Amino acid sequence: MGTTPEFGRRDLIKRAAAIGLIAVPTMSVLSACASGDSGGGNQVDKGEKSTKNPLAVNEGAALDVVIFDGGFGQQYAKDAEAEYQKAFPKAQVKHSATQEIQTQLQPRFNGGTPPDLIDNSGAKQMDMGTLVAKKQLTDLNALLDAPSYDDPSKKVRDTLRPGVVEMGQFDSDETWVLYYAYTVYGVWYSKTNLAKLDAQYPETWDDMLKVCEAAKKKGIAGWTYAGKYPYYLPFSLYPFIAKIGGVEVLRRIDNLEPNAWKDPAVKAAFDAYYELYKKGYILQGTPGLTHIESQTAWNEGKALFLPNGSWVENESKKTTPADFRMSVGAPSSLDKNDKLPFGTLWASGGEPFIVPKNARNPQGGMELLRLMLGRKSSQNFIKSVSSLTSLNGGTEGLTLPPGLASSQEVLAKAGKNVVNPRLGDWYVALQKEKIGVGALGEMMAGRLTPDEAITKIQRFADETAKDDSVKKYKHK
């Protein structure tokens, strides 16, 4: 994943409190970080603060950067690091890339020698909630209050897309995470393949079933998904729940409230998705597919619909036909009683960057982020990986690829109806291992009924709520 889009809608900050704000999922929990509020004594001396160096970076200090090598690759980071070295020619930049973020970095956290900047993404990212609870991160408000790279009259925070700053906050005004990408989640499809069935994207669930039935008659599956990583399913399922029952349902789920998962909207959404399995509309073998394998099957026309995030355009580009016309749709309407209109979707910051508290050069880590949020680096990211950054704007003069253009369109149509559940970055193991693998994956494979899945998930949520070792977070 990239974790990953879009538009100058300042009113989203107002709605953030009403809607809630998630990031790209994770599988592993950072269970044994170096404890407490130690560190800082190992840090390099600060440099001289100036107009060109507002964060007082030590110009000769080395910079250690670790990037998740996933859907967005790592070239965008290397390009930004090259710009950093132009600004600080005496600095040596060490660049590392891995898909094993937690495995490789937990020993460094434990030993008090973490990198200066980390792209904490992917299936094996470190648990953000645990990092915050153990006071292992640097407060990024110094970065947010620094002059922006392109316009010194504006603070960095004032150049970001609505809701991005709030996403990086947990239970206070400190900002622990900067989400660099901006992702639209939903049901992805090919306009070309739908046209072959004389169909358009179905705006109602009844129409969704009709399109899937028409596809089945031609030997094509309606849906596929990352069966080995079924926590991809919530990318379309969670906004579907919110559409049916309202954003309050997701807020109660995020807050681990008793019986939150037993809300009728959850049952209705689960029943609808389970119907895809019962009617044979899921691509055979899907429960055994990785995200890459499911995306490839989808690109090959074996299935029409795929729940995913907007990083999919870049991640699957090697197998995407030239005439595919990749697009994303918001969840279909269940019926006329839905609380929110068609177009409601999940969009949020993705690709979470962190500066460890015990980093040797935290000013350098924040300065690289400041540079990355400038127009040049932002446009380079957009052109390179088909995803927007959290910089508000930056697409002027660019020709966007089909999937990214579609992302902009659906987000603009959503208007204020953008949801962003926090469960995945507050409680990683609960979201991925338990809800995703332990329940949703089992339900979509036909091994649990919706009622059984809901009961199991509610038990998982209750266990987390009662676990004193897990720090709890709530919507403000």
From TrEMBL:
<protein>
    <submittedName>
        <fullName>N-acetylglucosamine/diacetylchitobiose ABC transporter substrate-binding protein</fullName>
    </submittedName>
</protein>
<comment type="similarity">
    <text>Belongs to the bacterial solute-binding protein 1 family.</text>
</comment>
<dbReference type="InterPro" id="IPR006311">
    <property type="entry name" value="TAT_signal"/>
</dbReference>
<dbReference type="InterPro" id="IPR022386">
    <property type="entry name" value="Chitin_NgcE"/>
</dbReference>
<dbReference type="InterPro" id="IPR006059">
    <property type="entry name" value="SBP"/>
</dbReference>
<dbReference type="Pfam" id="PF01547">
    <property type="entry name" value="SBP_bac_1"/>
</dbReference>
<dbReference type="InterPro" id="IPR050490">
    <property type="entry name" value="Bact_solute-bd_prot1"/>
</dbReference>
<keyword id="KW-0732">Signal</keyword>
<keyword id="KW-0813">Transport</keyword>
